[in-house]
Specification:
The chain has about 120 residues and is an alpha+beta fold. The chain has a single domain, classed as Aspartate Aminotransferase, domain 1 (Alpha-Beta Complex). The chain is about 30% helix and about 25% strand. It is built from 3 helices and 5 strands, in the order αβββαββα. The longest helix is centred in the C-terminal third of the chain and has 14 residues.
């Protein structure tokens, strides 16, 4: 499992940024964005499982990250990955933070998203 604090610490150490909370309606949703162009590279959310076509209604922490389209297609076939929640499903991907996807892989994907959104 990856906690939000671990994720935000990673972003601070690697990209020198802090999370932004731009949504009044969703106060727990955090955006990680570039300091120079304000483009998002990671959206951290807590969404009901049923919104991701999963059993249950309890919330689960996820991130949306940008990926190359061919990688999105490949990863969506694996456990812990879903079509992007509220983002372009060709270029963005939702990743579970419940431990299904190894921490090292999540951090690598965030790094790729950072590079793609420069």
């Amino acid at each position: 499992m990856i906690t939000r604090s671990e994720l935000f610490e990673f972003a601070k150490n690697h990209f020198h940024i802090e999370p932004d909370y731009p949504f009044d309606k969703f106060p727990k949703y955090a955006v990680l964005r570039h300091g120079d162009n304000n483009k998002w590279f990671c959206l951290v959310m807590n969404v009901p499982r049923n919104k991701l076509a999963m059993d249950g209604e309890d919330d689960v922490d996820v991130i949306d990250i940008k990926c190359h389209p061919e990688k999105v297609e490949n990863l969506r076939s694996k456990k812990g990955f879903h079509p992007a929640y509220h983002m372009n499903k060709e270029h963005w991907l939702t990743v579970m933070l419940d431990g299904t996807v190894p921490k090292k892989e999540v951090f690598a994907l965030i790094g790729e998203s950072f590079d793609l959104t420069k």
